[in-house]
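**User:**
Make up any protein.

**Assistant:**
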Amino acid sequence: MSLAKKFDHKLKNTLGLHSAWPPGSAIDIGDIMVKGDGLHTQIGNLTDFGVTFNTVPENGIEVIFESQYVEVETMQGGANVGLLDIVPGIEAEAEIQFKKQETYFFRTPKLKGVSIDNLSAVADQIVDIKDWKHQQYFIAWKVMTADGFTFLGSKQSQKKVKYAGSGDAIVKFIKIGVNAGISKTVDTGVSLQIVGEQGPVAVGYVRVKSNGLFSIV
């Protein structure tokens, strides 16, 4: 299974949402998507069809996970130490190892977002749109965004990256993905590296049926 599909499945199983791929891709609330090879691609927005909708803010969500076969080692003073034992203000290192192919490491501060809160009214408007493709179009009704997240993904096995920085900076990086105060010192060819970025990470989709009913997918 590809990195994209693994990450999508993880988000679906843990949050009930799909992944923006790659993480941080531009997706707006109300975007219309089509699905291909298990992933969603944007083709427009509800506003392009004259559909109006209301939005409300979503509560923050805490997320921390990586796929199996990813190992994180932290070091300080030439020895391996646990994350809780790292001393702030003293140089430390973190090494992230990808033991198998198509594995990833993801860290982020709380996800914040927005959602459409009048889906029934949206569905009522869509039923009257002659060119709407009910089986193919998915609407981004919820978009969760991360500020300063990190996603590292390796398509090949036995790859690694290492970062160095002050102890407190390394701890913050490993806990929530914030990259301030760290630098990369080793990279053996990790394929996808999105470090300290901002943008959509998780998306909720809804499909409107020809009878005016909608289903969250």
Notes: The first strand starts at residue 18 and ends at 19.
